[in-house]
């Protein structure tokens, strides 16, 4: 069919002239002509298929053309811009190729007929658009998040093996409920735990200085005075306090004196009870996992320290009536929790090693063959050092030489038997016990195992608990049997003290979990070895600070129904819909476009 043949009716008088840009096409094309009074060459477009130009596309493109052309001359857009705008709208709704015509319109003639040309319509349209743009702008600006300000808290974990400093941070305006507290920085204090400074307490205070100076750098200066600083001491100081309370007081005095010199808000140093340590570890894990806020099933906490170990979990079989000393109740975010928790003093990995070696050296011989150390390992050790702990001091063999030669033989099964000897399974006055006559309800997972559980299992590449327990034991058996020379060659960067003890530590962990706490081959897979959760270390310190700063509310806080982004999006969508409605409501005023089907 020939091009440029008009098809259909024309209700208006139009005058096509100047330029015609066409794409030839074998199908018929329809030209929709919307005459507008601009006094400039106008646009129209033709389509290759009458049906492909849908009603919405037509409405948008026509209304855009009318809107643009109804602008005063001073605001009118260039034809090319108008063309691209109307075309782009049209193309959005149609996938067919388009040909374009510039049409010159008799300005005076159309002025009489086009209601869009009336000043009222123009004013209403412009005001409507300005109002909607203003509405969206105000909504966005008003709700733009302000630059975040933070508050800080510092907790020193004075453990038996070392002290660590943790800096926590949370949004300043949300400290009372909804803001998430995160670990901003941690610093490992050089040297042993503060309990090791019993004979030189001043050094305990001095040892903290480097990390405290670091804290001054990490916390902004203007926040120093409002930043609470806590020191919590765990099993090392518990043991020292049991053994020599005046020595433990002196250590605390020295530590307090040192901490008070810093510009933070010092809140005191104290020894945490084993129950607190277990319960706050559980709070940390479940807080970081957001299980508390969301009221989800909680995760039990397994913490292995140097001098004590904690197990804490919620069990449907435990209401606190049996062995109430193991019960801690919480109301957090509107939910009640009845937590079972127990801390075993002397069952941290370092003290458990002492107990195991004490068992092996009971004869007080000059040579001790140790199945928990690698074959080829030899060291000269001191009996008085080995027995210098309340966990073993009463078992020191009489008449033993000062030193003994410690020789590794690397036998996992024998090591397991030696480790087992430190647990007492003989008496239980409750319905069920873990070990040493301590009540323990039925295990109920999942569990997070952290601190030394993680350090050790991670080193041994055994953190995957989906691997059958028997295979884990087999791997450990092979590891223990590996010659010490080979081990040191394979791990040149690892601290020798840690390296020498991994065979024992792995064996102890498996024995504690399976024999001590009664994890089976099946429930073992409920355990997840974790170091950090969302960037924060798993441990009691965060739970401790959240508790002391009342940062976990008993009742669920009211939260705004919509987050900021959702709010702005909804306002914007509504504004756009209103604009479309506004345009549609002006339908009676729309010019009746001459749909002049043309064969182009
Ligand atoms: N392999 C390895 N062991 C570590 C590391 N850091 C600490 N340990 C050891 O892991 C054990 C537990 O460490 P912590 O969790 O700090 O225990 P702690 O606070 O000193 O001990 P408690 O006072 O009983 O809580 C100790 O025997 C440490 O010597 C590490 O980075 N790697």
Automatic annotation (TrEMBL):
Active site positions, chain numbering: 277
Function field: Catalyzes the hydrolysis of both di- and triphosphate nucleotides (NDPs and NTPs) and hydrolyze NTPs to nucleotide monophosphates (NMPs) in two distinct successive phosphate-releasing steps, with NDPs as intermediates and participates in the regulation of extracellular levels of nucleotides. By hydrolyzing proinflammatory ATP and platelet-activating ADP to AMP, it blocks platelet aggregation and supports blood flow.
Co-factor requirement: Ca(2+); Mg(2+)
Cellular component, GO annotation: caveola
Membrane topology, from the record: Multi-pass membrane protein
Similarity annotation: Belongs to the GDA1/CD39 NTPase family.
Coiled coil start-end: none
The keyword Nucleotide-binding belongs to this UniProt entry's keyword annotation: yes
Class of the enzyme per the UniProt entry, highest EC level: hydrolase
Protein's name according to its UniProt entry: Ectonucleoside triphosphate diphosphohydrolase 1
Organism: Notothenia coriiceps
Assembly, per entry: Homodimer; disulfide-linked.
One Pfam family from the record: GDA1_CD39
Family matches, as PANTHER family: ADENOSINE/GUANOSINE DIPHOSPHATASE, ECTONUCLEOSIDE TRIPHOSPHATE DIPHOSPHOHYDROLASE 1
EC number(s) given by UniProt: 3.6.1.5
Biased composition (Basic residues): 9-26
């Amino acid at each position: 069919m020939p091009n440029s043949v008009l098809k259909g009716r024309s209700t208006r008088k139009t005058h096509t002239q100047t330029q015609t840009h066409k794409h030839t096409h074998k199908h018929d094309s329809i030209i929709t002509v919307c005459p507008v009074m601009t006094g400039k060459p106008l646009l129209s477009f033709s389509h290759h298929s009458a049906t492909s130009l849908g009603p919405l596309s037509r409405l948008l493109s026509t209304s855009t053309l009318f809107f643009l052309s109804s602008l005063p001359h001073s605001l009118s857009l260039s034809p090319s811009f108008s063309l691209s705008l109307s075309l782009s709208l049209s193309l959005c709704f149609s996938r067919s190729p388009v040909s374009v015509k510039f049409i010159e319109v008799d300005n005076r003639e159309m002025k009489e007929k086009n209601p869009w040309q009336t000043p009222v319509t123009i004013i209403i349209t412009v005001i409507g658009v300005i109002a909607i743009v203003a509405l969206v702008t105000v909504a966005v600006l008003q709700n733009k998040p302000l630059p975040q300000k933070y508050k800080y808290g510092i907790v020193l974990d004075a453990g038996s093996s070392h002290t660590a400093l943790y800096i926590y941070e949370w949004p300043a305006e949300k400290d009372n409920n909804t803001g998430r507290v995160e670990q901003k920085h941690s610093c490992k204090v050089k040297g042993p735990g503060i309990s090791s400074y019993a004979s030189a307490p001043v050094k305990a205070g001095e040892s903290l200085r480097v990390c405290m100076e670091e804290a001054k750098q990490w916390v902004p200066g203007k926040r120093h005075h409002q930043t609470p600083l806590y020191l919590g001491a765990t099993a090392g100081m518990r043991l020292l306090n049991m053994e020599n309370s005046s020595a433990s007081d002196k250590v605390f005095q020295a530590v307090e004196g040192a901490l008070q010199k810093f510009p933070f808000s010092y809140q005191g140093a104290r020894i945490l009870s084993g129950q607190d340590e277990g319960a706050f570890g559980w709070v940390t894990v479940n807080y970081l996992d957001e299980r508390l806020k969301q009221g989800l099933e909680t995760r039990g906490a397994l913490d292995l320290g140097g001098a004590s170990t904690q197990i804490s979990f919620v069990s449907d079989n435990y209401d606190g009536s049996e062995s109430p000393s193991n019960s801690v109740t919480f109301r957090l975010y509107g939910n009640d929790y009845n937590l079972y928790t127990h801390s075993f003093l002397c069952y941290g990995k370092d003290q458990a090693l002492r107990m195991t070696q004490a068992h092996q050296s009971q004869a007080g011989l000059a040579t001790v063959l140790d199945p928990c150390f690698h074959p080829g390992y030899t060291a000269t050790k001191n009996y008085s050092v080995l027995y210098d702990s309340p966990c073993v001091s009463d078992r020191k063999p009489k008449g033993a030489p000062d030193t003994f030669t410690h020789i590794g033989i690397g036998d996992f099964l024998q090591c397991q038997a030696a480790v087992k000897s430190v647990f007492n399974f003989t008496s239980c006055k409750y319905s069920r016990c873990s070990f040493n006559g301590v009540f323990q309800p039925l295990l109920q997972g999942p569990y997070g195992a952290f601190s030394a559980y993680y350090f050790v299992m991670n080193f041994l590449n055994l953190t995957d608990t989906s691997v059958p327990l028997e295979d884990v034991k087999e791997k450990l058996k092979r590891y223990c049997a590996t010659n010490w020379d080979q081990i040191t060659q394979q791990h040149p960067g690892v601290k020798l003290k840690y390296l020498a003890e991994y065979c024992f530590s792995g064996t102890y962990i498996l024995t504690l979990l399976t024999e001590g706490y009664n994890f089976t081959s099946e429930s073992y897979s409920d355990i997840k070895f974790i170091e950090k959760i969302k960037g924060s270390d798993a441990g009691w310190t965060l739970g401790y600070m959240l508790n002391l700063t009342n940062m976990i509310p008993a009742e669920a806080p009211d939260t705004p129904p919509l987050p900021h982004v959702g709010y702005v999006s909804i306002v914007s969508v509504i504004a756009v819909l209103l604009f479309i409605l506004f345009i549609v409501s002006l339908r009676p005023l729309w010019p009746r476009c001459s749909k002049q089907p043309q064969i182009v």
